[in-house]
Amino acid sequence: MTDLGKRRVPQLFAGLVLYGISMALMVESALGLNPWDVFHQGVSEVTGLSFGVVVLLTGVPVLLLWIPLRQKPGFGTIANLVVIGPVADAALAVLSPGPNLAARIGYLVAGVLLNGVATGMYIGARLGPGPRDGLMTGIVQRFPRLSIRVVRTAIELGVLTIGFLLGGTFGVGTIVYAVAIGPLAQFFLPMFTIRPAPAPEIHVGQSER
After folding, report:
1. What's the rounded Cα separation, in Å, for the pair 159 and 80?
2. pLDDT score recorded for residue 5
3. By residue range, what is the domain housing residue 118?
4. Residue 90 belongs to some domain of the structure
5. What single string gives the DSSP state of each residue in 168-182?
6. Does 209 map to a domain?
7. Shortest CA distance to 1 belongs to which of 127, 144, 95?
8. Which of 112, 121, 143, 180 gets the most CB atoms within 10 Å of its CB?
């Protein structure tokens, strides 16, 4: 494995683990989840499956939707699929619900901030988008007249509505996440983006010594 790969893979998995923990913090805050997690929680309430298992299982049909969009998963895509859900369940098993409003607000703030860091880390590793992110970008590439903003809004409103109707938690945390995650990701992504090493310069006419 190259030095570049030795950096990218650990960063990818660190980001995915932190992402799963951030999800658990927001769940235990009971103040609202991001749109996809409202959906995951709603399905969990109806089926009796754990939150993390629903996260994992939901990723499978989403990934299958990549096929007609001609998207190809990367190593990071598969890692995203199998890591985040189990980590979220493990974190939920350790965390206790916030005992009061102050603690719940602390969980929410920590969860949103950690999610921003984790997003910068796993995307910055440049090993492939997650299933849900890839669905959004795949639709935009397949239908270039659609903007990322329109596609993302449509998808997230859809899963948010379904999740809320199934019993997922929509609240102030949902709004805080929607407002904060873009600026946070924009702030942290440059810090963690691993770029290819520059090619060595070749000087025409330079002789070896």
Report:
1. 19
2. 61
3. 3-192
4. yes
5. ---SHHHHHHHHHHH
6. no
7. 127
8. 121
Nearest-CA neighbor of 66 among 77, 76, 79?
A: 77
Tokens in use for 134? 């890839």
Tens of each residue's pLDDT in the chain, 209 residues: 554 567 899 999 999 999 999 999 999 999 999 999 999 999 999 999 999 999 999 999 999 999 999 889 999 999 999 999 999 999 999 999 988 999 999 999 999 999 999 999 999 999 999 999 999 989 989 998 988 889 989 999 999 999 999 999 999 999 999 999 989 998 999 999 988 765 455 555 554 44
In a domain, 104, yes or no: yes
159, 35 Cβ separation under 8 angstroms? yes
Nearest CA to 177 among 73, 10, 65, 37?
37
Model-level pTM?
0.89
DSSP, collapsed to helix, strand or coil, labels residue 66 as helix
Position 176 in a domain: yes
Is 30 strand, coil or helix?
Answer: coil
- Residue 57: per-residue pLDDT: 97
Measured between alpha carbons, how far is 187 from 202 in angstroms, rounded to an integer? Answer: 35
Is the Cα dihedral 159, 114, 108, 148 positive or negative?
negative
SS3 category, 114: helix
Interatomic CA distance for residues 148 and 48, integer angstroms: 34
CA–CA distances in Å: residue 85 to residues 30, 34, 78, 191: 18, 15, 12, 25
